[in-house]
Amino acid sequence: MKGFQGIFVMLSALSCRAFVLSPSTAQAARPFAQDTSRRMIGSILDMLGGGPDKSELISPEKALPGRSTKMPNIEGLRHYVLGNKIDVVPEGHEVAVFANGCFWGSEKGIWRLPKGIYSTAIGYCAGFTPNPTYEEACSGMTGHTEGVRVVYDPKEVSFVDILRWFWEAHDPTCGMGQGNDRGTQYRSGFYHFNDEQKQLIEASKKAYEAKLEDATRKKRPITTEIKGATEYDQYGGLWYFAEVYHQQYLSKPGSRPYCSAQPQGVSLPEYEEWCPFPEGSELREKHRPTLPASFWKKHAPRRGCSVVQESNELISESSY
After folding, report:
1. 0.85 surpassed by pTM
2. End-to-end CA distance of the chain
3. How high is the pLDDT of residue 63?
């Protein structure tokens, strides 16, 4: 990186999370200081010019070049809460990758599901820059969005349960941003690894969009990006792990309880109402939700991002 491009990346990094990058230095930032710092840095970037329009996804040819070196210290790293290796996918397990705002809170919501989650991880996905850093992702010059990778046992927890949590844990109508976090690196997205996942994501999107419109009595088009993982093979792959300090950030001592997601307090319609597979079919039964209605009544995401205040431990099955 040279010239203004390098300066832009560095200044963008300063504005991310209001200077909070690692638990060892994380302290609650004063709202005034946070707002002032962001405004000041934004003004500097405006004066410099040459930076990307963060309301528009950068084109692949203009994205940062990245590197071939993988993120250090990820291989063999164990989940801070679950204890399993975050880079391993055991036999019989499957993977889901999604993005719905700041990845700290997004990850915590999923690892707390009562059963079936082998690991969660934080990373950068659906962009054009191989092996990006946090600072580069913050610049809007990689095309990546802050994502969560879930390794789960489909015999214990359904993909549909993960999908439902995804929809209900944020506002999927926000375009390039979520809450106070604005930019392409905060866009909503769900990325499928097979045709079954694709059909379930698309069918649930249509159902949730209708439910949002019914609840608010106005048009609420969902802007969530839905693409196949293989579409990113030409750029090195869909997923890249983020730095170690981001992994399970909200569970670590000294972390700042920050979350930008905006749950709408609207439930995804019942599976039977929108399932894309024929009644009585094997696929319909295969993907049937495993979490009961009592779980969602007690533990569904509430309006505003409340997950940061919840325990780091798994939700107990006896609690619902």
Report:
1. yes
2. 53
3. 98
